[in-house]
TrEMBL record:
Keyword check for Cytoplasm: no
Lineage: Bacteria, Bacillati, Bacillota, Bacilli, Bacillales
Protein name, UniProt field: Ribosome assembly RNA-binding protein YhbY
CRM domain span: 1-96
PROSITE patterns per record: CRM (PS51295)
NCBIfam families with a match to the protein in the record: RNA_bind_YhbY (TIGR00253)
SUPFAM superfamilies linked to this entry: YhbY-like
């Protein structure tokens, strides 16, 4: 689990990122979760945008994605979800203690 301090740090790191995935009408599916896992392994920190036509609540989408990709949910702000997962091969982000 991330501490409040670590979440604040990750939020500041994510601020300048643009969303790499969009969740639309189809909602969350296995293929999307797999792709998100792969991108998280490469980048560690990503944003996901929830489109207006998505039938699920954005918090439900955030929960499904973080559980599916075994990632930490950093923040849900507006229709944007910020996810973090420490990379095994490609560690770039050093979290504060």
């Amino acid at each position: 689990m991330l501490t409040g301090k670590q979440k604040r740090f990750l939020r500041s790191q994510a601020h300048h990122l643009t969303p790499v995935f969009q969740v639309g009408k189809g909602g969350v599916n296995e293929n999307m979760v797999k792709q998100i896992e792969d991108v998280l392994e490469a980048r560690e920190l990503i944003k996901v945008s929830v489109l207006q036509n998505c039938e699920e609540d954005r918090y439900t989408v955030a929960e499904e994605l973080s559980e599916g990709a075994k990632a930490e949910l950093v923040q849900v702000i507006g229709n944007t979800i910020v996810l973090y997962k420490e990379s095994r091969e490609n560690k770039q982000i050093v979290l504060p203690n």
